[in-house]
What we know:
The protein is built from six helices and 16 strands. It is mostly beta strands.
Amino acid sequence: MKRILNKIPFAAISAAAVSITLLAAMLVGAPATASTDNPRDVAEKFDRVLRKSHVTVVTKFKLNTCRYSQQAATAKCAEKPRVSVIENVLKFYGDDIRSAAVVLEPARDKGIGTLSYEYYDVRKDNATWIYLSALGKVKRIISTRDSEDGGSFFGSEFLIEDLDYRKLNDYTYKILRQENFQVNEKGGPTSRPVWVLEWTPTAERARKSKYSRIITWIDRERHILLKEQYFNHNNQLFKVRTISSLELIDKHWMPRHVTMNNLLAHRVSTLDRQSIAFDWNVPDEFLTQRTLTDQAFRERYLSEFRTAWK
């Protein structure tokens, strides 16, 4: 998203420094082995789990962002973190997606929201709108590779393209290796067999993306993301996404905690899912601009969705 999001004021509501363990998921044990699997098939299995496991997802999460200083294997915020609490509602329409996100806290930003329509067809651009409650206006926003904030999600190190579901035909694929990977699940550290898959954007996609390639650690049995690395157009390792508190919720594997570490800017964002519900009935009318502009309409539905949270 878009230059306007980084101009939204976010009050820091936590004065304490937040200690964040970096590199929460580390490689362990077995040596890398050559793979005979088809890389496109691996990507399709991964995509199928994302798109076909459920119809709707309703979440509430806390988003913390700060500049950090490095101390041995950990990093600590060198400034008061920006903290916001957000509710997000997502619904699949076949392979297409509609979602709405609304800020609950801090109070000064309450009611700011976004509405996104994602299209699986590479010939159709995704569409995103933002509502600024202080101005009472909805604005269509366009993200490009060269935009100043690169499409930041509410000023965090998560870009809109990090949170979007990728279109398979926007990339070519290569399996770099297979190995064992240690992930922090709810019950503790667990070693998992993974594919290490490289995504290279097509020339058309590269013109719109901040990344020249992405490397994903994909669980070979559950076909879910365990770690991801992002390289900029100078082929520098730019950002690292790690997960922890991986939990099986209503037969869906979901990390409660996601970290995005910007290695070049020394900024980190953590996304903590506080509540979540799958396959709740979300009417189509909720995923329209009215949800952004009509608080009573929005709250009528959200209060119902909250009863299903886990």
